[in-house]
Structure formats: structure tokens, C-alpha cells
Amino acid sequence: MKMNLKGTLLRRVGYAASALATGVVVVALMSAGPESTPALEAYADGALRYMPNTAYGFDEKLQFDVGYKFITAGTAVMQIGSGPVAVSGRNCYDVRFDVRTTSAFDKVFKVRDRYQTYIDIDGIFPWRFEQSVREGNYSRDFSAIVDQRANVAKTTEGSFKVPAFVHDILSAFYYTRALDLHSLKKGQSFTLKNFYGKNTYDLRIRILGREQVEVDAGTFDCIVVEPLVVEGGLFKNEGRIVVYLTDDDRKIPVKVSTKVVIGSIDGELTGYSGTRGPIAAKRN
């Protein structure tokens, strides 16, 4: 029994590096709430929207440590390229999210994950998405070219009809950061949609309130949200996920906490550079 418990714990800690990816991209999907409102229905005829964005820009880089209690299991980096990339005739942000376990934990449960999306600079929606997952013995490669004019996603698994301005699991996070979240209240929730694989999924996001969080990168005032993940849906149901975003115009993810039976597996911000402006929520 003790050996089984130890093995389970080690696998959970090894999995911590990919837990950050799951948590960040799940909370991002809150974007589908506003997109389903009547105010945006006028875009359904194929016209491309414009959405202002003052939250981030080129060269932004966010760095995280991922671990269990005092054990660092892995690292993660979210970054935006240094200049625009042309996709489908539009200028895009080249956004990458890399997650990997440390060399010590590679022997327990090796993780090498990459998510990449090309986000329309003017409209904050994706034109292309690529995913490479390497977790232990499991591997998966997925890509999608999203025709945002015809509302069709052409993927490695086929061609599928999608909602207007549909998001992938990474672009949705950056869309959410561009939104004004200051008016969100504790207890509010949002129903959302996101395309992945062959389907469009429904998820719900609940606002837990505000909290001050201290990590290696500093102390920040945060808005706290919880994605309510449906069993058998888009993401592995490894436990409750709580995400802390800076409660200011940047909405940087400061902490992602995955609550499991053995405690909490956390991804915490260790450094950042290239932000579009000051982090007003930072207290030291």
C-alpha cells in the first residue's frame, strides 16, 4: 500500500508541469461568454471584428515554476513573438506556451508539451493552432487551421463547422486578458464554448472573488476564478483548478492551483518581461 501511494504521489508531482497548461487554458475560455451575446451576432456574416487590446503586445514573456509543496517538478514559459506573423492574409501574434519537467523529474514522469497559436492582432481570434504533447508514454500531435470567415476548422482529424470567432485552448486565454474584468463579482459564472479535436465544448467559469497572492515574482492583487471542468470533456479531470490573474489591465496569470487528494499542485510566476505597461496589481 505504501509503495502504491508513493508511486501515485510521484506521478502526480511529475504531472504538475502539464497541470499549469491545463489550468491556464481552461480559465481562458471565459471569452466565449461575451462572444455569445447578441451584440456580436452582426459578425456572423463573415465580416471580421475589431477588438481593442491594451493588455499585452510583442515580446511579452511569462515564466513559471510548477511543483508540489517545496518540490519543483517543472517549468513553463508563455511568450509572444517579437513581431507580427502573416497568416491567412492577416497580421498575427505568434504565441507559444512550453511546459517541461526538470531533469530530476524526467525520470519519474517526463513532460515536453508545446502549444502554439496565431492570434489576429486586430480581432484577437486564432487562425491557426498547433499542439505537441509528450507526457510519460503518452503523445499527441494536433493542428487546426481556422477559417474565421467561413466558420470552418480544418484539423488533423477532419473538417468541422465552428462558431464565429471560435478559440483554441491558448488563444482564448489571450482574448480573456484583453477583456475588461474589473466589473466581475464573486459568484458570477459564465457558460462558454471552445473547439478542440472534433467538437465544440461547453464549460462554465465561476468567479471566486479577489485575493492577494505572493509568489517569487512578487505580491499581487488577483481576481480568482475556477473553471468547472466536465468529466470526459476537453481536459483531463485531475482535480479542482483555481487560477489567479492580476486584477489590473494586464491580467497576467500569477498562480494556477490544481487541487487534488494529496494537496495542491501549483504553477507560480517567477518572472516576466516585455509587458505592455506597468503591473498595477503588484504590491512589491
Brief account:
By secondary structure, this protein is α+β, with helices and mostly antiparallel strands.
Structural write-up:
This protein is of the alpha+beta class and 284 residues long. It has one domain. It has 4 helices and 15 strands. It has helices spanning 2-28, 32-35, 103-109, 171-178; strands spanning 61-68, 71-80, 85-87, 90-101, 112-120, 126-135, 138-147, 152-155, 158-161, 189-196, 199-215, 218-228, 240-246, 253-260, 263-273. It has a 15-stranded antiparallel beta sheet that branches. Strand 13 (240-246) and strand 14 (253-260) form a beta hairpin. The chain starts with a helix and ends in an 11-residue tail after the last strand.
Q: Which features would summarize this protein structure in a list?
A:
284 residues; alpha+beta; 4 helices
Helix content: 10-25%
Total of domains: 1
Beta-strand fraction estimate = over 45%
How many DSSP E strands?
A: 15
* Oligomeric form: single chain
State the helix count: 4
- Kindly name the structural category: alpha+beta
What is the distance, rounded to the nearest whole angstrom, between the alpha carbons of the first and last residues?
A: 45 Å
Low-confidence stretches: 1-9, 22-44, 230-237
Task: State the major sheet.
Answer: 15 strands, antiparallel
Q: What best-fitting shape do the alpha-carbon axes yield?
A: globular
**Alpha carbon gyration radius:** 18 Å
